[in-house]
Design goal:
By secondary structure, the protein is an alpha+beta fold. It has one domain. Helices cover 33% and strands 21% of the residues. The chain is built from four helices and five strands; from the N terminus they run αββββαβαα. Strands 4-3-2-1-5 form a five-stranded antiparallel β-sheet. A hairpin with a 6-residue loop joins strand 3 and strand 4. The protein is globular. InterPro entries: DUF2958 (IPR021341). It comes from Tistrella arctica. This is DUF2958 domain-containing protein.
Length: 125
């Protein structure tokens, strides 16, 4: 799977040029066989250094930089690799995801809780 389409790359690069902004995540990557999850908001001009929220599954998600080439180079069993969540649509700025993930101990659990909490605001039950 191609981790970044040209459109996603353009959005991430544009965000990377706007410093000190609490961007909404553009893309979500995940380990289909494990707990690793990454939400990226920015891409540096080097076209490799992403910024966002990283969760390796140890209960302590962190804001910081990570490498697109490293994500791309991961080789998992059964010929799999890190994937992009093609259905991901961010609803909150990165700071909201980060705080929720810190409280929940993971990005995945925080997304579930944020979805439930935001449902009444969107007219859901």
């Amino acid at each position: 799977m191609i981790l970044l389409t040209d459109d996603l790359r353009d959005l991430l690069l544009a965000n990377g040029r706007q410093r000190d902004v609490d961007h909404v995540p553009v893309v979500k990557f995940f380990d289909p066989l494990g707990a690793g999850t990454w939400l990226a908001t920015e891409l540096d001009a080097d076209n490799d250094t992403l910024f966002g929220l990283a969760d390796l599954g140890f209960g302590c998600p962190e804001l910081g930089s990570f490498s697109l080439s490293e994500l791309t180079s991961v080789r998992l069993p059964f010929g799999m690799g890190i994937e992009r969540d093609i259905l991901f649509e961010a609803a909150f700025p990165l700071s909201v995801y980060a705080e929720a993930a810190r409280q929940a101990g993971s990005i995945v659990e925080s997304e579930r809780l944020l979805t439930i909490s935001a449902a009444p605001l969107r007219g859901g039950h």
